[in-house]
């Protein structure tokens, strides 16, 4: 992780979220590409071990890298949503006008707050999370 990096944002299992991430000019390509091997119907190959055994499923997804250089313009932190006035515009179906914020608490720890979005927000930290939630 770079010293300027605050968080990486990945699309949820939804084509709209994937399109919204890719539409942002700050999006980054997946860190790893899946290797595709095609066999004919008559061939039966043995199961190959994963190419990158320590890789996360997130390594195969595009993402947004949020940095300290992305200075929050409000006291609510960095605002994400489909509204053109948001700090990070994710203009696609399923993204609320003002969807969520990324801010810091009094101890300078980052936190995500869902801003009463219709579809909810999922937060994962070190591979653990509680699924999609709303208004937290």
From TrEMBL:
Record-linked InterPro entries: FHA_dom (IPR000253), SMAD_FHA_dom_sf (IPR008984)
SUPFAM superfamilies: SMAD/FHA domain (SSF49879)
A Pfam entry, by short name: FHA
Region annotated Disordered, chain positions: 19-56
Annotated Gene3D superfamilies: 2.60.200.20
Residue stretches making up the FHA domain: 78-124
Transmembrane annotation, as ranges: none
Feature: compositional bias, Basic and acidic residues: 19-32
Protein name, entry field: FHA domain-containing protein
Organism the protein comes from: Beauveria asiatica
């Amino acid at each position: 992780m770079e010293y300027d990096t605050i968080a990486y944002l990945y699309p949820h299992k939804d084509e709209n979220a994937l399109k919204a991430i890719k539409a942002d000019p700050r999006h980054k390509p997946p860190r790893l590409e899946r290797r595709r091997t095609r066999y004919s119907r008559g061939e039966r190959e043995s199961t190959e071990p994963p190419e990158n055994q320590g890789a996360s499923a997130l390594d195969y997804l595009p993402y947004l890298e949020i940095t300290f250089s992305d200075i929050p313009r409000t006291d609510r932190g960095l605002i994400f949503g489909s509204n053109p006035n948001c700090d990070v515009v994710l203009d696609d179906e399923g993204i609320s006008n003002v969807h969520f914020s990324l801010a810091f608490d009094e101890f300078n720890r980052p936190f995500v707050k869902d801003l009463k979005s219709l579809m909810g927000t999922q937060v994962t930290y070190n591979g653990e999370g509680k699924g999609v939630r709303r208004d937290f």
